Amino acid sequence: MKDLARDLGMSVATVARAFHPEATVAAATRAAVLSRAEVLGYRSNPLARAIITRRTRIVGILLAEMDNPFYPEALARLTAALQEAGFNAMLVVASPGQPVEAALRLLLSYQPEIAVSLATSLGSEAAAACRAAGTPVLFLNRHPEDLAPDAMAIVCDNHRGGARVADHLIEAGARRPAFMAGQADTSTNAERFAGFRDRCIKRGLPPPRHIHAGTFTYKAGHAAALSCLRGAERPDALFCCNDILAAGVLDAARRDLGLRVPEDLLIAGFDDIALAAWPSYDLSTLRQPLGRIVALAVEQIEHSARGGTLAGGIIRIPGEFIPRGSTARPRGDPAPEQEQTS
Amino acid sequence: MKDLARDLGMSVATVARAFHPEATVAAATRAAVLSRAEVLGYRSNPLARAIITRRTRIVGILLAEMDNPFYPEALARLTAALQEAGFNAMLVVASPGQPVEAALRLLLSYQPEIAVSLATSLGSEAAAACRAAGTPVLFLNRHPEDLAPDAMAIVCDNHRGGARVADHLIEAGARRPAFMAGQADTSTNAERFAGFRDRCIKRGLPPPRHIHAGTFTYKAGHAAALSCLRGAERPDALFCCNDILAAGVLDAARRDLGLRVPEDLLIAGFDDIALAAWPSYDLSTLRQPLGRIVALAVEQIEHSARGGTLAGGIIRIPGEFIPRGSTARPRGDPAPEQEQTS
DNA sequence: TTGAAAGCGCTAACAT
DNA sequence: ATGTTAGCGCTTTCAA
């Protein structure tokens, strides 16, 4: 910048101003600076700026569960949207062997404008570290039970989604629906189940069985299906808490247990990951409004970066049910609403 | 830091030295500084340091094709390994609507120690931008045809891998094997095909047909399979350039064309993504040595960050063939090597 | 072994 | 509208 200023016969201050749209510089001066900068290949140094302004244009993304395809999809879209808004994404991944906490410390020292938590539960120590660093936290998709008053969460309306799935399964003929849970202590799990259960009961069915897979993985879904779908008392419909779980269930049902889907068992998922649309799964699912979630998130990040404060609380965005073959009503039965009276 | 120094009655210089293992400070002084820093929650600011040392501890990761599960897996492992080594990963994603070029400019202004290209082809303008910024580039998994002399690539030994798949398919009874290509202009595609073809010819088979799917996606594999597996002249074995392609092929073959795998058609893939081990796919594949690739990459990044120069050129690491049901030899036929003479 | 001082690339009053 | 000056948090000579 000094060089550029010398080259142009101006002071560094003037040159600096040319790079700030809101600064007060003569249009001609700005044009001259910018064009010369272009020629010399000069780009202002965001690190130096960050030291003074404390605005890094860095967004820290905390991610776990890379093995659930929903998260790579969400990450790709979020990162792309951030790029477009002129933010840089710093990625931290948590895994069994790598707790977020350590990496989070490193991340926070770069003074991200905000931390976005995708799937990480972000323990209280981690949350405290963010608070101490003055970094606001935005939760996407999941939120902790004890959401700090100044933290914000943007999630799918899981309760409503669960209810919507219940409606669909019941209309497709389900009489003994069950719910398959992934990781028990997650908000997604609790909310989707609650919505599903409430609606089942409201429509006159017994409370759906709660099957515990343990994690949101194909393997867990597969294993849980093997143990819960044997015997005569098996459910006739299964709402899996997410699609990757449902994929495991579907394979177990068809290949290992010889069940026909949807004739013997209706299966629905949640998320609408790419695989749900593959012909071999053809999975009915509640599609997450990823586009809207990401757009809203970036909006909030920009607001926060401008110095605004995050509205605390949880924003719930409704998803859309996508009916597919895994719950197609067999033999064109009419929806048997009348049976609710029994 | 100034505060810390005042608190301790030392100069900032001494305090600064305490944070550099190689700096010359009295052991007692260092201990005092570090323990007090811990108490006060002080962490040195990497941004300020970066301005002077030009060492940011930032690694820029350029990524495309988030829809091929191989890349999320690779990204997760790379990021985790970088974290452990004290680096921070800055992620830039390319997509049809979002060319890397724009985001790369933003990224480079943060002075990453190195740029890691995962799947991005990184056009010549982009490569030039890196060169201009003095940022070395490390290619993972794929490398450009015209690899710059100072650029390095770490990839699976695709040629050898292709040959290994050929061996396996031939031993499983293949007589008219074919190759399904994804994106034509990629090194992975070219090398895997070359290895496969050479070995087929060497073992007395006609040159394998080259089927062009166009992209490395499930959908492309599915569509290409539908058009190439009809009719009597169809291949009896298909080596798909990667697993996600193979998944599409498998589904098309079984569900749409009524073919039995492996009885009517042998199918092999490449990568060994999670899905390949699912019972519904049970896909034989060449497993990429991701652990070794990542380890070597981090090693090189550390070397480069220490001021060392990257050894230019391509490092090829052999993969491991994982036989599964999609190529299990039907009816226990002995491998008919003798037919090679015909 | 430590301190003083200069400076990294930039911003932000304050003057002019 | 532009220049001057001080300083962000840190490193790094150079002297002591």
TrEMBL record, chains A, B:
Origin: domain of life: Bacteria
One Pfam family named in its UniProt record: Peripla_BP_3
Keywords on record: DNA-binding, Transcription, Transcription regulation
GO molecular function term, any single one: DNA binding
Stretch list, region Disordered: 321-342
SUPFAM superfamilies xref list: lambda repressor-like DNA-binding domains, Periplasmic binding protein-like I
Domain spans labelled HTH lacI-type: 1-53
InterPro entries on file: HTH_LacI, LacI/GalR-like_sensor, Lambda_DNA-bd_dom_sf, Peripla_BP_I
Protein name: LacI family DNA-binding transcriptional regulator
Organism, scientific name: Pseudoroseomonas ludipueritiae
